[in-house]
Amino acid sequence: MDAVLPVYQDAVVANFYNGVVLAAVEAVVAGLEDGRQLCVLEVGAGTGGTAAMVLPALQNACAQYLFTDVSEVFLLQAQQRFAEYAGFMRYELLNIDADPRLQGFALAQQHLAIATNVLHATPYICNTLAHCRQLLSPGGLLVVNEVLETNAFAQITFGMTDGWWLFA
Ligand SMILES: C[S@@+](CC[C@H](N)C(=O)[O-])C[C@H]1O[C@@H](n2cnc3c(N)ncnc32)[C@H](O)[C@@H]1O
Questions:
Q1: Would residue 168 count as lying in a domain?
Q2: Coiled-coil segments, which residues (predicted)?
């Protein structure tokens, strides 16, 4: 018997909070003036659980969805998984812990940035948030879907991995 514990996608908690992200995205889309399209950047998009939730809602309202992660393997997987959105999807490496300008990102281009369970994985949250802000256009919105408390499940799973306790 396959015993797979869903964590990010198809899990009750992840689905609930990705649904909250979707509601925020839908509200932004609903507020768009006629003919305007969004530039969206997802930080630490990883296995694509959040992207899978929001992409259908963005399909006709998005000029570009930048799917980024610090790890290239996620970008390669996502290119296959989200092939149906190829018209507006772009895939780029981005370490949100480092200055986006030094990684080839133009400043102030994104109307919307989305970050699900990634910002905690950086040592200095002030730097991380400043980098998110650099990427946003004036009035741009950062949607943060982030764990706020630790618990036994997290500690004996992710807590054993390098990087989980990176904060300084
Ligand atoms: C806990 S996973 C969440 C993945 C995805 N957002 C989701 O909810 O399915 C954290 C992700 O952040 C990425 N990550 C870790 N440190 C990062 C950094 N400094 N900059 C950008 N992404 C990072 C990891 O590669 C991983 O894909």
A1: no
A2: none
